């Protein structure tokens, strides 16, 4: 049996739990792997198995969360214990699908005790560089879903590096929201209109500044660069923000209302690109000695220029993929495809145990 | 130590051996895996280790092959024994980078004895369906390099299926040579001229009919379909051939000379596509109940229509990637990138042992 502790049971966590319940019998048949939850946690409680969490209990947990309650509302919840005490003597897989930094140190402790980690949560990899290496040494932590969700990005990059290839340049469009906005501008929308629409349709985070600041993209860039072996310190990647500093601290409602204040600078960049026959994209560019995250003018024949709408796109130019890059493209967010990435990592890890 | 037997030391085999020698120390440090050859074979002899083939011996083998000799010319070569007798009591990885069917049955025997297999050679997977399942059950055989060389295709597909996704449609351009030819037609070349040029530049197989028959693409289509779980019998995938039957059996020289006989039918298809505002591509299309390999008219906004030149491109439309597919693109041939695919598979397998 492969014991799993899952931290977080929000959108991605619920999709993951449903996928695990659905495929567990096939995985048992196909690979002889018996995936079993031994604990599931949200921000308020942990349901620990006795010794494992039954399928029925998983369904109960899903029902409780879908009803909007905390796990502490379940009779058998533990609220005063840390999950690390629930780790078994055999090797377990700890899955972090929260969005907090709270578990970073315990995850590193679990790794040093020989356990394995799978992450959709980017934060544990964006702390001090030493924590990144502690988590990832000997391939103890898999984190495919942190960049591009279910798209093959991290595993591909590690495969290239492990086989002795050398990364010359990674160029990537890693924000579906910012991709959507750039396409809207190309279709004639103003910047404020595009953001209002994206916010109303739920394409942005509840606070759209979480997307527009580029902070989430900067975290992905940091993870990619560190995966390349570049020892980038925490917070060393700065992303270009698409709104002026005076809008950083106002309420969401006020921010939305004052969005036209962000209009001019973005539209100027957009018009300049268009006048030069180029396109404007919000991209990440990583080379061995530079990391950039922000708006960039690209010539029309650039691989990332062809991107429309919310797809992610990642282009690897390496010593072996030199004249023509390897390019991955597709939806880079969404709870189902993110859970797919996480579960693939869990299965790959379980096959090693 | 992870023992490796490598069958074939041609273009891909030599690139692989060089990559293994180069990365072995890093792999040892990074994953605690000690990759060691215990035997290397070509069509004429086997060099068996005592107990392992030293790095110096690997360099000797590379020098002998680069000089155009057979391994039987080396003093310690074995020519009268089968590699299966060299398999150790512990689990070994057998790597087939030949282009023969000869090892199919022994590979299946090795798998049933608990060993693992890694293939760049498509043929072992294109025999009877029972042999395919015997080789691939429990994930015993990895074969990423058989489709798209170093591009992530097979692993991605297996990841989708393992996590419970459902493939609705795979559309793919899997022949660099045929991609090159289609682009040449778009640039105004005649079909015969395009083939002559591709042949002269070494872009085709020595006998260009090996490309133009579509047989190699049909093998890739068969492997993709079987990986999807479709029990396709051997030879059940028929590819559209780009030359008429009367040219099938003549010499290569005569074939090249009589190529204008193939001109009319291809150019008619090309002109019809262009007149309809479409593009002509040689593609593979797999759905749960159909497999097609051949020329197809695609609308200009189809994901595969944007392809130019010899790149491969694979588009997965699934239940989860429904509105927008996952698309992989890049060079799908070449000895270095093929060896990258093979070595990634070897490392992934070794991490499981
Ligand atoms: N959604 C996507 O498309 C996507 C794509 C790639 C990566 N990701 C990443 O995946 C992670 C999860 O995303 P999501 O969309 O599922 O977020 P979400 O819906 O907000 O869910 C977060 C979950 O984490 C739980 N949580 C918060 N603090 C916790 C703590 N200290 N201990 C244990 N659990 C805690 C929350 O508990 P409560 O239920 O009690 O609030 C909730 O169940 C995030 O890091 C996100 O960046 C998401
Ligand atoms: N090249 C690519 O870009 C590419 C891409 C994807 C997949 N592949 C596949 O990778 C495989 C190798 O390709 P390649 O380009 O390296 O071919 P290659 O240069 O022709 O090399 C084939 C090797 O196999 C050896 N061989 C033939 N019969 C054998 C036998 N019965 N036992 C042991 N060894 C035998 C040959 O021996 P001799 O040296 O004695 O002739 C030679 O060393 C093929 O299946 C190919 O389809 C190639």
From TrEMBL, chains A, B:
<comment type="pathway">
    <text>Amino-acid biosynthesis; L-methionine biosynthesis via de novo pathway; L-homoserine from L-aspartate: step 3/3.</text>
</comment>
<feature type="binding site">
    <location>
        <position position="205"/>
    </location>
    <ligand>
        <name>L-homoserine</name>
    </ligand>
</feature>
<keyword id="KW-0791">Threonine biosynthesis</keyword>
<dbReference type="GO" id="GO:0009086">
    <property type="term" value="P:methionine biosynthetic process"/>
</dbReference>
<keyword id="KW-0521">NADP</keyword>
<feature type="domain" description="Homoserine dehydrogenase catalytic">
    <location>
        <begin position="152"/>
        <end position="347"/>
    </location>
</feature>
<dbReference type="GO" id="GO:0004412">
    <property type="term" value="F:homoserine dehydrogenase activity"/>
</dbReference>
<keyword id="KW-0028">Amino-acid biosynthesis</keyword>
<keyword id="KW-0486">Methionine biosynthesis</keyword>
<dbReference type="GO" id="GO:0009090">
    <property type="term" value="P:homoserine biosynthetic process"/>
</dbReference>
<feature type="binding site">
    <location>
        <begin position="8"/>
        <end position="13"/>
    </location>
    <ligand>
        <name>NADP(+)</name>
    </ligand>
</feature>
<dbReference type="InterPro" id="IPR019811">
    <property type="entry name" value="HDH_CS"/>
</dbReference>
<dbReference type="InterPro" id="IPR036291">
    <property type="entry name" value="NAD(P)-bd_dom_sf"/>
</dbReference>
<dbReference type="GO" id="GO:0009089">
    <property type="term" value="P:lysine biosynthetic process via diaminopimelate"/>
</dbReference>
<dbReference type="GO" id="GO:0009088">
    <property type="term" value="P:threonine biosynthetic process"/>
</dbReference>
<keyword id="KW-0560">Oxidoreductase</keyword>
<dbReference type="Pfam" id="PF00742">
    <property type="entry name" value="Homoserine_dh"/>
</dbReference>
<comment type="pathway">
    <text>Amino-acid biosynthesis; L-threonine biosynthesis; L-threonine from L-aspartate: step 3/5.</text>
</comment>
<feature type="active site" description="Proton donor">
    <location>
        <position position="220"/>
    </location>
</feature>
<dbReference type="InterPro" id="IPR011147">
    <property type="entry name" value="Bifunc_Aspkin/hSer_DH"/>
</dbReference>
<dbReference type="InterPro" id="IPR022697">
    <property type="entry name" value="HDH_short"/>
</dbReference>
<comment type="similarity">
    <text>Belongs to the homoserine dehydrogenase family.</text>
</comment>
<protein>
    <recommendedName>
        <fullName>Homoserine dehydrogenase</fullName>
        <ecNumber>1.1.1.3</ecNumber>
    </recommendedName>
</protein>
<feature type="binding site">
    <location>
        <position position="122"/>
    </location>
    <ligand>
        <name>NADPH</name>
    </ligand>
</feature>
<dbReference type="InterPro" id="IPR001342">
    <property type="entry name" value="HDH_cat"/>
</dbReference>
């Amino acid at each position: 049996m492969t014991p799993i502790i899952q931290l977080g049971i929000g959108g991605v966590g619920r999709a993951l739990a449903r996928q695990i319940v659905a495929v567990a019998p096939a995985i048992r048949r196909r690979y002889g792997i018996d995936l079993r939850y031994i604990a599931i946690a949200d921000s308020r409680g942990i349901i620990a198995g006795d010794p494992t969490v039954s399928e029925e209990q998983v369904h109960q947990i899903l029902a409780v969360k879908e009803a909007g309650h905390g796990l502490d509302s379940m009779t058998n919840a533990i609220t005063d214990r840390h999950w690390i005490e629930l780790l078994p003597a055999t090797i377990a897989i700890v899955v972090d699908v929260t969005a907090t930094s709270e578990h970073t140190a315990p995850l590193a402790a679990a790794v040093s005790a020989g356990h394995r980690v799978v992450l959709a949560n980017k934060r544990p990899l964006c702390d001090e560089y030493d924590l990144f290496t502690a988590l990832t040494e000997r391939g103890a932590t898999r984190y495919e879903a942190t960049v591009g969700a279910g798209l093959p990005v991290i595993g591909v990059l590690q495969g290239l590096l492990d086989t002795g290839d050398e990364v010359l340049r990674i160029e990537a469009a890693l924000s579906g929201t910012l991709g959507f906005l750039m396409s809207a501008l190309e279709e004639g929308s103003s910047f404020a209109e595009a953001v209002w629409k994206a916010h109303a349709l739920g394409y942005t985070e509840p606070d759209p500044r979480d997307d527009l600041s580029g902070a989430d993209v900067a975290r992905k860039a940091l993870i990619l660069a560190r995966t390349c072996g570049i020892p980038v310190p925490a917070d060393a990647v700065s992303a270009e923000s698409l709104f002026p500093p005076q809008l950083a601290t106002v309420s969401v409602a006020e921010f939305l209302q004052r969005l036209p204040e962000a209009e001019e600078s973005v539209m100027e960049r957009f018009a300049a690109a268009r006048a030069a026959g180029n396109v404007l994209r919000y991209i990440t560019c990583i080379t061995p000695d530079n990391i950039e995250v922000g708006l960039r003018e690209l010539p029309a024949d650039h691989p990332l220029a062809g991107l429309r709408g919310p797809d992610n796109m990642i282009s690897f130019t390496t010593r072996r993929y030199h004249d023509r890059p390897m390019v991955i493209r597709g939806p880079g967010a969404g709870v189902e495809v993110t859970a797919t990435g996480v579960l693939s990592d869990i299965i790959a890890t379980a096959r090693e145990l």
